[in-house]
Amino acid sequence: MKRLFVTGYLFASLFKSAHADLKQSLRGKELYSIHCAECHGDRGQGVENEYAKPLVGNWPLEKLVRYIDETMPDYDPDLVVGKEAEQVSSFIYESFYKKPERFKKESKIQLAHLTNRQFKQSLADIFSEFEGRPQVNTKENGLRAKYYEAEGTNERKRKVTERVDRRIVHDFGNRAPVKGMEADKFSIYWEGSIIPRESGWYEFFVRSPNGFVLRVNQPRGLATLEEKVSPGMIREVSAKIFLLGGRAYPISLDFFKFNDPQASIELMWKTPIGEKEYIPIEFLFTQFVPASFVSQKKLPPDDFSHGFERGIQVDESWDEALTFAVLEAANHAGEKINGLTKSNEDAETRRKVIQIAEEFLRLAFRKKPSHETMKFFVYSNFDSQTPLQTSIEKVVLLTLKSPRFLYPEWQWLTRKKNDSLVVANRLALYLWDSVPDKKLNHMVDRGQLVKEWQVQGQAKRMLSDSRSKAKFNHFLIHWLEMNTKELPIKSRKVHPEFSPSLLTDLRHSILSSVEKTVWENKGTFKDLLRMPTFKYNHKIAQFYDLTFPVDREKLEFISADSRGLGRHGLHTHPYLLANFSYSEESSPIHRGVFVSRKILGRNLRPPKEAISFSDSDFDPDWSMRQKVTSITKPANCMSCHDVINSTGFSLEGFDATGRTRLKIGDHPIDLKVNFLDRDGIARELNGPDDLLEQALNSPQSAKSFVYELARYVSKQSPESYSNLDLLNLSEMLGRGEINLKELYLQLCLRAACDGFEFQP
What we know:
The protein is an alpha+beta fold. It is built from 27 helices and 18 strands.
């Protein structure tokens, strides 16, 4: 009886314990569903625009309990504490932390079509393989100018001199441009290359009372702007053209004066985001390059719901716009046939055109096509009855509308992982947003892309190409949230001297400074945050009370130590401070959100409702700090605004234009804040320098940057790739053991080689 009693007691105890465990598990699941699933997903898979990364980790249960008890949920940490924190922690630990491999299996590369940038970049590169690749091999800035005597309207007689002009801004009046020339009859021809920083629509302006012909990315026979009639009055004409950032384009300006009373000429442009300006000299080069085919058709915007451009929207408008773009490319190919073949014999011409069509198909499909594929797309379109121009147009049209071109991932997903062709295609897409070039294809064909050193060698070669720099620069613009279509214009009443042209210069300043840090100085992530170089011109110096050398040209940008100019840290650049401000006053909230997310790497939930802000709602004697504190006081706000407000208040020493200040009205500025770090430790910060030190010492800053760059590089979820090892790269980046160029290379290389086994 005693044994039975003991057995029964043990069974009852075990049952009670199991029941308690089950009850706790069910309660933990319930709490998770109520307080956590909104941000982390019902299966811990992550939620886009909330907390996208899977809920996996290697923390011990005790640390997880402590973290949830003190900081979660982030909108109100007091909701889940004590016993409930233990219950939800146990559920998370058992369900997710012990099974991280589940998410890797569920994450996979999603099928998507080429983004707008990838589509136009791929077309430009394919045609360049036939028409000549536009590469600039000189660092000599400016345009090469040839000065001629003239006999009539643009009839050159004798070259008098040749020189390099840094800009085309000339007012000759009634004088000769150089010695040894007649004042009434002369001609000047400028030629070189232009390399824009960003992709988009550029408007070129020529202002002159005389005759001229401007060509931008045009063969010599075609003009972008042309004015041959000289009425004697200054007039300004303009034309828009779409250009891809980071590519070199030929530019020439043919100018002539023949018995006109005055002579002057000015060349300007308006960038996709900016005001009309004289073209900065760093974008002009003396070397002339071949023209590139760049589609001028407007395409519907890419999907941006994942935080980066994705080609997932397929609708009638996209298909229609794409059709017109493909027809444009087909017409271009047809018009170029005679020039490409360089032959007038029918049989020889036909053979060369078919060869071009075969190579075009190979480049567009990113692989060597089978005979059946070649027969359908190429050979069937050539017969004795059809003009060659029509045949090549049909080939281009069929090829570029094919899913084999538009959906680069579709064929990769069906091939063996250990395939060098997949590696080559991914390298081109991740580094260039384009198709593999002939050299890369040649290596694949010869079996020379199967060893680690071979792949790494090609990746390094591709990194040195201007297309890699252009893509990474595009990411930096996205990361800095400068990819809007408008400049942060300010109130002319409050800030009358803060002009759109100054904003254009400031935008140029920050992008040039960042590029110099990354590409010229091979800077680390900490160097980027510090922003050691500040580039500015006379206009910026005048507004921000900076010293500018008297012997330097006013339009010219110079480099200086940023700390010596009172700009310690990327977050203190005037453009960013102005961009995240209101039109009249600073905005601690906007600045705080940007710095928290991008500089500190903190995850912030989007607000459940927008907060309206109006000065009339507050006491007129209140400071901006008092106003912001008041409207963000509710508990459901402070979970994020504890971080947002403290970072934003740290930057109140700068006004809405980024100028330094000590007071706001009659109120002295208090920069001291209590900042709550990710570990829940309160730290006292006193201004932007302390904020910078917090970012430099925070592992989360580097981690957030790495994850965002990984998403941008591949246009896929980083969890889709097993080779990335993002945590290790984040730690290396945080310690300064890898520079940003190398980080970009490693992310592209590792994603491209995912699942690939190198031959010994």
